[in-house]
Fold this sequence. Notes:
Layout: E1 3-9, H1 18-27, E2 35-39, H2 42-50, E3 55-61
Antiparallel strand pairs: 1-2, 1-3
Amino acid sequence: MAKLLKIELIRSPIDRPWRQKRTLKALGLRKLHRVVVHKDTPQIRGMIEKVKHLVKVEEMDGD
Length: 63
């Protein structure tokens, strides 16, 4: 089974560097408390690491 990551935006990107804003946009996070699901890949993990202070991440089992 593939691992999935459930990512929720919990802090606002206002007054954050443009790189962090672009990373959130690339993850598909646009509004607070919205949740997106991505496959657990090294690329996604790297993006999460850059904005870990703005998001909440949960691991899920998926198909």
